């Protein structure tokens, strides 16, 4: 009977160089001990089942170790020296062997069954912890990690961990038991033959080390090219509109071809080198086999051992060398699984949004007075974007933030909602420092209508309900009617129950904005943040949006990152931001008389509009 095989049967050789996993180089974990410890903490709740699996492996490996012994016995029993056959003895041995084989299959089935549950539960927990962690990370984390990278940790890396747990744990235990058991059986059968069969081990080690050295370099290169290829695919798909608009399809294809050719070339080399391992290994193993057979033959002629013992011994020596080869392979699977676990733990170790203070209170019944007091902030603390900004907005008034692109307008509202934490100064709402209140209660005060409205896949109704989850259908329809969104919603095939495509992309930008306004009306926040869209919608829709916005802004403190002339002119205060500072503030008329920064900005941006009108 062969020792247990791992699930990745196609994978062979020292570097795990074949089969589906083989195209990946082995990425080693950086801190093996710590990663193992942490991973073990996920295994802990499965300790009992793991012990049962261990017992099952012990039994099935033990049974497996009996087989060569009985085969040897069968040979010796069958051969009675006078060409007569001992059918009775043979029958008993065949019976025993059949029972052993059936038992072994049953044990293997049970092991796989239990291990499947263990690995899926562990990976389930890991996935849940990771996803929950992502929800609690600050926005700044997502500024520096691409979506692709985060996705790959949630999918590829977790998959690697799962494969390692489900396949390698059993493989590791069964290989270890088989190697040890076979070795003991070999020693019991014949010490001389055992020593002879060990002769090839240094040869195997030397050969695999040399080949592995070469393949490692090639696989690393292959992985890096694969990364480029994925990057190129990701970019060309997300930028498909730009690619088509500029007729760059051929260039994109050409670049893909270049990278793909490189990948193919390195892939071939890597596969060829890794392909050497198995045949070489077989040659060496067969040399060992030959040595044992010849030596065994000599010993048998001298009547020092029986033919049956030689047959048993040869089986054991196969059972000894096979898991040895497989262990090298499993070792690689384990390494990439641990590296995957490490990458998952890296995210789990990321600093979460700064915890609310222990005695953080709930911000309630907000009137909406907002004060920035000498606020300084930089996405990178060494390079402040806003410096000592101070201003006060009365409750219920609206303030238009204007200024050149990159001036820091969005940054101001990002600080207000505590998406980022200020470096210096304080922000007060109704005279209360926002850091002393829980983030949840703070964010409840805000409603946002952003330039790019994000709609989730789901129905129109569900998307509006996002503003206030407990809202009834009537409330949703009332909000949509106020926002004048119901006009287009009712024209949709299933009205409020129409399912929106991914990101709401089957709606026009104007329609998406009206939905966002409906959401905000439903949420009924004390403070509103409006980031006006720069792209123009048709005049009728623009009028509707404008009307809905005015309704929404009524009696609410409103921060508008303003782009439309009408919004700016109607604002209670206009604040001109430039280079991280407030360079001017006041009403439209006041600032026009001043003939300062606002006047210049107004002239440069809106004069055409005024002339056209
Ligand atoms: N997440 C971020 N990480 C690092 N730097 C950022 C980040 N967001 C913005 N910045 C930088 O901060 C500065 C201010 O950006 P901000 O988005 O506040 O400008 P803005 O006035 O809103 O511009 P626009 O009118 O173009 O939207 C810019 O120089 C920008 O490059």
TrEMBL record:
SMART domains (UniProt xref): AAA (SM00382)
Domain ABC transporter: 370-604
Keywords: ATP-binding, Membrane, Nucleotide-binding, Transmembrane, Transmembrane helix
Principal location listed in the UniProt entry: membrane
Pfam family, one: ABC_membrane
Residues spanning the membrane: 49-71, 83-103, 179-206, 287-314
PROSITE patterns documented for this protein: ABC_TM1F (PS50929), ABC_TRANSPORTER_1 (PS00211), ABC_TRANSPORTER_2 (PS50893)
Residue span, ABC transmembrane type-1 domain: 51-336
Top-level taxon in the UniProt lineage: Bacteria
CDD domains: ABC_6TM_Tm288_like (cd18547)
Keyword ATP-binding: yes
Membrane topology: Multi-pass membrane protein
Cell compartments where the protein resides: Membrane
One GO MF term attached to the UniProt entry: ATP binding
Protein name: ABC transporter ATP-binding protein/permease
Organism for this UniProt entry: Tissierella simiarum
Taxonomic lineage from the root: Bacteria, Bacillati, Bacillota, Tissierellia, Tissierellales
